[in-house]
Every structure is written in structure tokens, then in C-alpha cells.
Amino acid sequence: MRPLPDIRAEQLFEEGALALAALWDEDAGMVRLAEHPEYHDPRGTLAYAHVLLRGGDAARAERAITAVLAMQETREHDAHFGNFRWLLEDHSVADLNGVEFMLDELIALLHEHPESLSESTVDAMRRSIALGLAEIDRLDVHPSYTNIALSDIANSVLGGELLGDARCVERGERRLDEWLAFTAASGAPHEFNSATYTAVDIARLAAIVEHTQDRGIALKARIAEERLWLHVAAHFHPGLAQLAGAHSRSYFDSWSGAGGYLKLLLWRLLGDGALRCETPYAPHSREEGHIGLALGSFHCPPHGARLLREKQYPFETRETPDAAHGLDITSYLTESYALGTASRTYAVGEPPEQWPGFDSLHLYVKHDRAPGYGALYVRYVIDDKAPGQPGDAHGAADHWDEGRHVAVQDRNRAIVAYGLMPRIRPAHSCKLSIRLLGVSSDDEVWVADRRIGAWPAPVAAGEPVVLTFGDAYLALIALRPTDMGSDAPIELSRSGDTLTLDIYNYKGPPKSFWEHRSQAGPFFKANVRNAFALEVAERSEYPDMAVFRRHIGAARLTDTTDAGQCRRIEYASGGGSVALTYGLRDMRLIERRHDGAIYAPPAARFGAAGGGGGQFLQTSAGSLDLGRARLVSTPAPKWLFADDDAREYIVINPLSGELQLRLSTPDSDIACDAFGFGRIALDEVARTLYVDATGEPPAVKIVRGDGLSIIVNGIEASGGR
Questions:
Q1: 458 and 490 Cβ atoms separated by less than 8 Å
Q2: Measured between alpha carbons, how far is 48 from 46 in angstroms, rounded to an integer?
Q3: What is the DSSP letter of 13?
């Protein structure tokens, strides 16, 4: 039994072991759900099996494993033969991801404890894994469902190797190649910037790196894991200990800043206690997976860890998770805030299915009082649903988005426009709700020239709502919404430290809207209008609130719609502007402009705006400059990382197609005529060139670079050239 990797892993394991022991049900031989103890959780039960085996209690561990194996669907005629029920109390397979999560744990148990389990239990686990892998093959989930696609890959590779099933391993590698190509075609992982699932993604790839017997597969997984770590680092604000928006899969930890799975992984790496602080904005932490995170070995690259620990501000990230459907994301980080948007609504699969748990726009601001930050998030809400309403064992008490949006952001300015989704059932309210968490009693709140102290306060379309918000100034300007009834209001309300700006399309008795039943047919002309502009600023940028209010008062906000139902919104202030054009009939994003210029999003580009520190660019261009580095290569997807301060330069080819390339820095020139999948890392401080590649090592030439040594696939190359 291998030791735990480090002291924080030991702490996580101890915390997880204590929590699971308290939930153990001896009669059922399973662990209960913490929030719903009347239900039994197979994932927690398998995690507890790790604890029991490490503690020498193999008999109880085998009881736990056997109880979970009994939850597998073993009737050959069942539609999901080989899958697992999500909870013991479920009558049948409903959550199709059960097989991925159970196999992940079963395979890990066989890797960790092959000698501690009886032969009969090992045989039963192997039979279960074989049934599960066949179901995974049948499901063959779309690569846009990132965490499940990567779970499929990890289980296929590692499960296939355990069973000696070469076909499964080959399928896993093929799926990994497909996922790498799918992701490279856009830029960022499709399931982008999730406070829960990005950690799942990293864990799955890290498991492949650690356990696969195939060096080529391990390298592919390690490079994919590196890209995910850089994705996290690009959006993480170390001063706030928060993941800047937008977020693709947003449970309450994303919009409230509460603890969660990714934060727990980051704490394991960074040790920053702020990542585990309680918050008043959520009912409890969403920390989970302590045992898996304690046992895992992860491979965050040093340049990624540097960006996670510190940044030069302002720091801007622009990435494209879904180029085919026009979805890109922007995060803008300063000392005091982190603003992020997604260009359009998150959707998965082909044809894409819209998923409601996302953040279209999100803002964190620094506070000088606990918990050290405030947050703003946006939801289109039907029937005045509020966050924190009780969920059941199959769903958390979250706050789903029930609309469709498009957005534009440039630095500290943004426009977000929403429309309805098709709806048949009656509704008594339809509104866009902008919620601010952590607005203190000392924060000034103004509507136009009126300071607000009584709630709710009416707001007219076009009137700016301006407030101090922690260490930032913030302005929100609602545009005139479509009124689907009569006298739909715009209201500013307050409850404790939560301030809400509600922009209604309808408020009244329950009513069905024939024109929006399918958003087609004889009555439909266009979707509703519901939009706002936002500007945020550091307090240090303006002498006082009055000056910021005058700045916002001088801003220009225009809103026009042409005969073809194309709507154009432009917001301009202080010499900068953003503009958004979209189709009201289909919520199609037509055009965005930054300071008058048409915006074309990159595959990925992030770094400090001033050019210092680590800079990253992902592109298919043949020639690119980043910092003091120049890369000339075959036009195809590639990544370039440059840190002039650290004198570190990295080129990655994420695909199997060969690139002719030449990397030039002030002190070195590196060339290769045919570089396939792999990584070239130049460390000019250590005077070392690292080359990692699948297959035969490529002929990498040092054209210029006195004293550089070469290490190829971990082995020092003779001659240094």
C-alpha cells in the first residue's frame, strides 16, 4: 500500500474518513447521503472501501463493494444492461453516468489494493467492470460532455488493461485522440471552467498518467491534463481565491464562491486556506471527493502553478470552448475584481441541448470583511424561483437559468441580452434577475440621481443603478424590456446583504404565452427583449462615488432593431465601447464589437495585459509572436507558452499530424522538420531543452543555443544536438 503523497493529502484523507465513518450504515453495508440520510450512496460507499482497506478492515470493505456491485443492472434485456443505479433506493437506472463513476472507483480499488481483497471479490469486480465497459461502449457519449467523455476514456484504458482486453484499450486511446482533436478544433475544453467538473476532468486524466502501461497514452493524457491546469490557472484569481466566470456547469459553489471539488483540489496543490473558507452566500460547502483527491497524484506543470499562485494585473483570458456554435468566454481580472462572460448559452451534444446550470455573466469583487468577497450572477427566472429552495437526493438546491442569452465583454464593460426558451405551461412571472451577494449596509446605492434607502425601489429603463460594491464601483443599466402583459416593472430590492435588480417581461396572474409555445407557428414574431449593460471599476480609478456616477451619467447606451428583427445594442463610456448584434427570432449571435472593431475570438489567449509573466496562445496560424518568442510552423492547431521573466518557452502539438516548426527566442533557435504529437519545453535558465513525443523521438535541432542539453522522453540525448 503506497503512502499518501503529502501532508495535505493526509489531512484530506483523515477528514474524508471521519465523514464517511459517521455516515456508515452497518445494516445496509453502505454509506448514507449526508444531506439525505434516508438514501444510500454507492460512490461514497466505494470511497469508504478505500478507507477500510487502508485501515485493515478487508471484511467490511468487501461488504461495501458487494453492496455496490448488487446495484448493477444485470438483466441482459434491459436498455442499460451493465449500468448502475445512482442510489440504492432507486428502482432502476436513471442517471446514465452511474456506470462511469462506479467503474472509476472499482478500477481504482483494484489498482490500490489487489492483494487485500479475496479472490471471489476480485473476480466479481472484474466481471462488473467488463459489463460496465460494454455499456460505456454502447453509450459512446459525445465528446462535448467533457467529464463523462474523459471518464469513458479513463475507464476504457485502465479497465481494459486490468482485464487484458486490448480492444477496450484501443477504443480508449481512439476516444482520447478524438477528444483531443475535438477540443483543439475550438480551443478550450467544451465543459469549460466548472467549479466541479474541471476537477473531475483533471482527476480522470491524472489517473491515466499514473496507471496506464502505455507510454504514448500516458503522454497524451499528461498533455491534456496540462491544458486543463492552464485553463484553470487562466481564470483563477489568487487574491480572491475564486474561479472567475463564466462557468459552464454552475452549482451553487460557482455563483456563491462556496467551497467545492475544484477548490479542494486547488487547496491540495496550493495550501491556501481561503479556498476552504465558509461563506454566508450558500447554505453549506460543496466540498466532496476528499478520499479520491487525497489518493490521487496530479501533474500541474510549474508554469501553471505559478499562474495559480500569483498574477500581474490586469489579466485577461479569452478562450473558445465551442467554435462550431459560436460560444467563447472572457475573463478580466484586476486586483479588486474578476468579471467574466460567455458569448452565448451553454449547450452539449450534437444537435446541442441547452443545459440550465451555467453562469452567463459573473463578477467577484474584493471585500474587506468576511468572507473577503462579494459576488454578482445573472439568471432568467420563471415564477420567481429563488436559490436555496430545498432539493431532493437527485438534485441540489441550486438556481437554474431558464432563458437563452448572448453577450459581449471587453475588459470591464459588458452587455448581456436574454430571451425566453419555448414554454407551454402558464407562468405568473418572467424576469431577468441580477443578484448581488455581499452588498453591505455601508455601500451606497443610487438610481440615476436618487440615493436609495427604501426597498423595493422602482427603476426606469435606461436609468443607471450605481453602487459601491466592496473595493469596486459598479453600474448596471437595464434596457427597455418587452412587456408580455401590462406594466411589467423593473425593481431594485434588498434582503439582508443581497441586492437584486429584477427586469420583468411579465408579472401578473398565471398565463400561457401562445407565441412562445414553440417559438414557431402563426403567432411567433420574435423573442422577448431583456438586456442590461454593466461597467465595473476599481475604486482607485475614481476619486469618489460622485465622479464615477458622473462618468456613468455621461455614458451612451443605444438600442435599435431593424426590419429583419436584428437587434443592436451599444454601450460607450470614457472612450471605450462594446456593441452586440443578435437575431431576435433565433437568438443568433451576429456580431460583436470592441471599441468599434469587429471582435473575432481566439482559440485561446491569456496573460497579463502588460505582457509580463506567463503568456499563452493557442492558434492554427503559421507564424506567431508571444513575448520575446517567435514560432513559425505548419498552419495547424498548436499551443505556445512564453514567460520572458522565467525564460521558459513551451510548444505543444496536441494532434498526431506532424508540424515543421522553428522556435526562436533571444538566446536560442530550435527547429524540427516533422514534430508529431508532443511537447518541446525550453528552459533557458537551466540551459535544457525537454522533448516529449509519442513514437520514435523526432529529430529536434538546436540551431542556436550554446550549452543547451537535450532530454528526450526523460533520457539525456548524447551530443546535446
A1: yes
A2: 5
A3: H
Distance from chain centroid for Cα 222? 19
Question: In whole angstroms, what is the distance from residue 223 CA to residue 211 CA?
Answer: 15
> What distances in angstroms separate CA 242 from CA 261, 351, 371, 534, 582, one per listed residue?
13, 33, 12, 20, 31
Query: Cβ neighbours of residue 35 under 8 Å, at least 6 residues apart?
Result: 393
Average per-residue pLDDT in the chain?
Answer: 96
**Which three three-digit cell numbers place residue 499?**
441586492
- DSSP-based three-state secondary structure for 492: strand
What values do phi and psi take at 266, rounded to 5? -65, -35
Could you tell me where the beta strands, DSSP code E, fall in 43-187? none
Per-residue pLDDT of 582-600, as tens digits, reads 999 999 999 999 999 999 9
- Burial label, 154 (beta-carbon count in 10 A; 0-12, 13-18, 19+): buried
Q: Is 452 exposed, middle or buried (0-12, 13-18, 19+ CB in 10 A)?
A: middle
Please name the amino acid found at residue 638.
K
Query: Are the beta carbons of 19 and 34 closer than 8 angstroms?
Result: yes
Looking up cell 521573466, which residue turns up?
645
Q: Which of 594, 596, 517 has its CA nearest to residue 343? A: 594
Cell 487525497 maps to which residue? 294
CA atoms within 13 A on the CB side of 129: 28
Cα 615 off chain centre by: 20
Strands 315-322 and 373-382: unpaired
Residues 163-185: tens digit of each pLDDT = 999 999 999 999 999 999 999 99
> Residue 476 and residue 593: Cα distance in Å, rounded?
20
User: How far is C-alpha 231 from the chain's CA centre?
Assistant: 8
**CATH number listed for the domain at residues 1-136:** 1.50.10.20
Locate 277 and state its grid cell: 473558507
Pairing status of strand 709-712 against strand 688-693 = parallel
